[in-house]
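Minutes, project check-in
Item: structure for the 141-residue chain
Input as provided by the requester:
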Amino acid sequence: MTGSLSNMMVVISVWALPLLIAITFHEAAHAYVAKLCGDNTAWMLGRVSFNPIKHIDPFGTVLLPLLLLVMQSPFLFGYAKPVPVNFRNLRNPRRDMVLVAAAVRRSISFSQRSLRWRFTSSAMCPVKPASGWRRTSSTRS
């Protein structure tokens, strides 16, 4: 029982923080692009924020993934509070709806690049490369 509990705590600690950051970036990106396109709804409700508490849905972000984890489901699923967007307030609704939806791709690539930079910098890398490995510079002909 103790091994199972400690294993579950490791899984939660390894997955919870990155997932929380991803959810926060995801929802803040929707809200920020909606603000840029003319809709102030999410801005007025305080949803353009990197504070994860503003985006957490008690059931979808906490309870549902926890229940699936305890039941040893082969998959985990969860969701955050949806960002309120009033499409009537957008300057060009047809184009801006696509931009609000596509904002998530930019936030994902930004977070991937920042995490890749952080974990590949030599100061953050706890393991030294193998002795036979060395970086070679590419030369152009």
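Outcome recorded: DSSP finds four helices and no strands in the chain.
No further action items on this chain.
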